[in-house]
Amino acid sequence: MPVTLELGAHVPDCDVIPHDLGKYVLPPERIMTIDIADGLRGIGLCSSREAILALITHATKGRLSPAQVVEHIVVLERRERDARNLASRTKRATLGAMKSLDRFDWSFPRAIDRPRYEQLLTLAFTEPGENVLLRGPSGVGKSTLAQNLGQHALENGRSVCFSSVNAALADLLKQESIPAVERRMKRYTTPDVLLLDELGYLPCDARSGDLLYSIISRRHERASTIITTNLAFKEWGSIFPGAACVVALVDRFTQHCHVLDIDGDSWRQRPEPDPAAPAIALRRKKTRRAS
Q: What CATH number did the domain enclosing 116 receive?
């Protein structure tokens, strides 16, 4: 006759699981599933209690085999851990607010190599640690395209860091000792993809040039760096007057570099659409049909 186990009841120890283990009748289903959910979370599962309970209910109603239940738990837990990992990396990346690619008007710039950008979205350039330069006048969408590359890299498991050039250099310059600089430098040298925005928009001193050179040289042929700028390479020296390392900086960055040039007017200078325009166009269309 089956033996019903109360919650917390002792199951006799044995070296080998008995073949008649099925004689033990588990407590009522609701109590059992709640205890299992708490137990799984207690041994380290990240999935929510509600998700685990829903899975157990599905497994019970579907009469899944033990192997199928374990498989479902693995899938659930992997999905949860991937989501948490992405959320953590996204927070550290500091990409900020951005316009998604589906809202980017590819017809607005006078010149842009869309196929080249879409090739960059494959992230093939990150495997050998190649760099990307997005170059063009202010307001043509360089930052938006760079941020979307960063977001795509995050979604594909890469670590990312986004910062304006001046903010990154100011962050390093405010460190009070060489060891502190070295510790902070890791924020910019360790990510798989580093995005440095707006190079050339504000002047920097020679020490800033040395720090940027240090970042680029440490990442050279190891991890990818994406830079947005409005300046040609030959003009980079004007950003860091007196810095002797600029030639070496450009040499290392451009050795393995994909350049995407964008030409066009600033998005910010576009005339605002007339809210009444659609209604006017509709009335004109109806007038033409009537005539």
A: 3.40.50.300
- Whether residues 238 and 121 fall in one domain: yes
Neighbours of 221 (CB within 10 A): 11
Residue 283 lies in a domain: no
Does 146 fall in a domain?
yes
Angle at 169 between CA 166 and CA 171, to 5 degrees: 105
pTM equals: 0.73
**One domain for residues 155 and 240:** yes
- As a whole number of angstroms, the distance between CA 105 and CA 114 comes to 11
Question: For 72-86, what is each residue's pLDDT tens digit?
Answer: 889 998 888 888 888
Pairing between strand 160-164 and 3-4? unpaired
Torsion of CA 81, 84, 88, 91, to 10 degrees: 150
> Cα–Cα distances in Å, from 17 out to 2, 4, 6, 259?
17, 18, 20, 65
- Dihedral angle, C-alpha 135, 164, 191, 248, nearest 10 °: 60
> For residue 126, is it within any domain?
yes
Classify residue 290: in a domain, yes or no.
no
Encoding tokens for residue 276?
């009444």
Neighbours of 148 (CB within 10 A): 21
Least confident of 2-6, 16-20, 86-90, 172-176: 2-6
- Residues 116 and 257: beta-carbon distance below 8 Å: no
Indicate whether 25 and 143 sit together in one domain: no
- What is the total count of domains within the chain? 2
Q: Are 188 and 161 in contact (CB under 8 A)?
A: yes
CA 218 to chain centre: 22
Q: Give 4-53 pLDDT, tens digit per residue.
A: 334 344 444 444 444 454 444 445 555 555 578 888 888 888 888 888 88
Q: Which domain holds residue 24?
A: 3-91
Pair (219, 116) in one structural domain: yes
